[in-house]
Amino acid sequence: MESLDKETIETLIEKAFTMLNYSYVPYSHYTVGAALLSADGKIYTGCNIENVAFTPTNCAERTAFFKAVSEGVKDFKAIAVCGGPQKIVKDFCSPCGVCRQVMREFCKDDFILIMAKSKTEYKLMTLAEILPQSFKPDGEVGAEQKN
Q: Nearest-CA neighbor of 4 among 86, 79, 94?
């Protein structure tokens, strides 16, 4: 796993927690914030945005990725994610399967996911760990399937 310094991790977590305040969640009331670090050091933030029809709902992680990609950025190092009901984070928040596949589209196996329970309590995982045997844009499958 590529390493991130503690200051970078804390900055990403802080920005993810700030994004909880921007979530639009009138149906689930479950807020999620994300802070995505590009390879060039810029941070893109996102929050979840619900819709009454649910299918148009967008997760915080995808919001951050789509903001970055819409500005031409497609190389990323890490993302911090936090979430909980009514802006109260009690546990680690893991990305949904759709978000994991979006991460796979733009990130390598060593992309770091920071799941934050608080500003000082978090778990680090790589994309390969949270999405093993995944579909990759180059047609390859996860390392676990290679012979």
A: 79
d(CA 85, CA 108): 31
Residue 99: how many CA atoms within 13 Å on its side-chain side?
24
CA-closest candidate to residue 65, choices 91, 92, 40, 34: 34
Residue tagged active-site, from 61, 71, 140, 144: 61
**Burial label, 70 (beta-carbon count in 10 A; 0-12, 13-18, 19+):** exposed
pTM assigned to the model: 0.91
Q: What is the pairing mode between strands 76-85 and 112-116?
A: parallel
User: Is 61 a catalytic site residue?
Assistant: yes
* Digit-coded pLDDT (tens) for 39-78: 999 999 999 999 999 889 999 999 999 999 999 999 999 9
Does residue 144 surpass a pLDDT of 80? no
